[in-house]
Design a protein that fits this description.
By secondary structure, the chain is mainly alpha-helical. It has two domains: 165 residues, no CATH class; 55 residues. The chain has twelve helices and no strands. Helix 1 crosses helix 9. The longest helix is centred in the middle third of the chain and has 29 residues. It is globular and about 65 Å long.
């Protein structure tokens, strides 16, 4: 792998540490407050590595929902990773199976957003450089996620509520999404997803988010097709 591309990915993803740290600490604190012991908290973070899914499962468990319902809800929330994987196949699908398995395990929102943006903006990157870049992005985020979850679990409820660690999640997703809104279709899809997420909030087991994402993708695709046909008529 290209060492330069690896370290470039490492540097490009470094700003997200500012939100990964409090977000992962918050999960550790909330999980301990919900009754999980230290081993359970760390097992969940290491096996899942997905903050939104972990918080979803934890919230359902706190409401005494059956374990299989919590697992299904977490899976539904985490289905966006399948979309991320499909988008990265043209860039990373050539990698050996063991590398692709490791990429899938370590994939997080930040890694996908940074890598996909770079791959689209730099089509001249070689296959080896793309793999190296992606690993550089991933290896920065995940150790902080593990370590700060552990720290949050140790500290537990000792963190005063006025620190407001829950700001990290929305700030992180805003930072991930904003740079990707580069066309009218992107903006329309984002707007539709927000509206539908609110309208579908009553759906059980996190399915409202999945339904909102599907509707937004369909609307965005139709806007893109409309704009392409309009450009062809004007050409």
């Amino acid at each position: 792998m290209s060492r330069a591309a690896f370290w470039q990915g490492f540097r490009d993803c470094s700003p997200f540490i500012a939100v990964v740290v409090p977000f992962s600490m918050l999960f550790g604190v909330v999980a301990r407050d919900a009754g999980l012991d230290l081993l359970q908290v760390m097992a969940m973070s290491v096996l899942v590595i997905a903050g939104a899914s972990q918080f979803t499962a934890l919230a359902l468990l706190q409401e005494h929902a059956p374990v299989f319902v919590a697992l299904l809800a977490a899976l539904a929330v985490n289905l966006r990773m399948a979309l991320y994987s499909a988008a990265l196949v043209p860039h990373l699908g050539h990698a050996p199976l063991w590398q692709r398995a490791l990429m899938a395990y370590l994939m997080v929102d930040q890694a996908y957003a940074v890598a996909n943006k770079t791959f689209e903006e730099r089509p001249e990157m070689s296959r080896a450089d793309k793999v190296a870049y992606y690993f550089g992005v991933m290896v920065l985020i995940c150790p902080f996620w593990y370590g700060c979850t552990f720290l949050g679990a140790l500290i537990g409820t000792a963190i005063p509520p006025e620190l407001s660690l829950d700001f990290a999640a929305p700030v992180c997703f805003i930072a991930l999404t904003a740079p990707l809104l580069r066309s009218l279709a992107h903006v329309v899809a984002a707007g539709v997803s927000v509206i539908c997420a609110v309208l579908f909030a009553a759906f059980p087991a996190g399915l409202g988010l999945i339904a909102a994402a599907i509707v937004a993708m369909l609307v965005g695709a139709q806007v893109e097709l409309f704009l392409n046909r309009r450009r062809e008529r004007l050409a």
